Protein: AB hydrolase-1 domain-containing protein
Organism: Penicillium desertorum
Amino acid sequence: MKKKLLTGVLSREWERRYPRLRNCALPSIWTLFALFVLCNYYNLNPKSYPSRSPKTLKYSGEHITWEPCGDLHSRPLECSSIEVPIDQFATEKPDSATNPKGFTIPLIRLRTKNATQNLLLNPGGPGASGFGFLYRRGDQLKSILGEGFHLLTFNPRGVNSSTPTASCYPDAKTPQEQSHIRARNAAADSPEI
């Protein structure tokens, strides 16, 4: 009995001190309930993504022929090249009459004794050479990966030995003009002075 009486006294005392709190509590409870329902709805019904993978294009007669091109720390290297279209969605090979524009991408592969599969290394970029990456890090990667994979890499479009090469300058004279060292005459070379 005393417990019930004490609870009644406390609740009446609470209402007397904070009369607005009772009126605010009910809308807050409904707001929290609505948020709970919405959050659960979106967790139970996640957005669906397409289940089909994009269609890859295969050109008829597509084949890579490898030729020996040296060695790297007594491991044989093989080289080849592939023709790729400028437009990646082109349905014709770049050497055909309907789509003459394309790039020749050089490939290099570091062979191992027991490998049956290639591991493709992307040199990164922009403008990074896969050949340089393989020469710098090929031996280190082989020690990490072991003999299970041939390491295959490439020079991206427009970089080093890929053709046509990309150029950021309109002619050969422009890079020489822009390479002027601006530290010889501080008064003439500084626009702030």
About this structure: Helices lie at 2-17, 19-44, 130-145, 173-178, 186-189. Strands lie at 67-72, 75-85, 102-110, 117-120, 149-154.
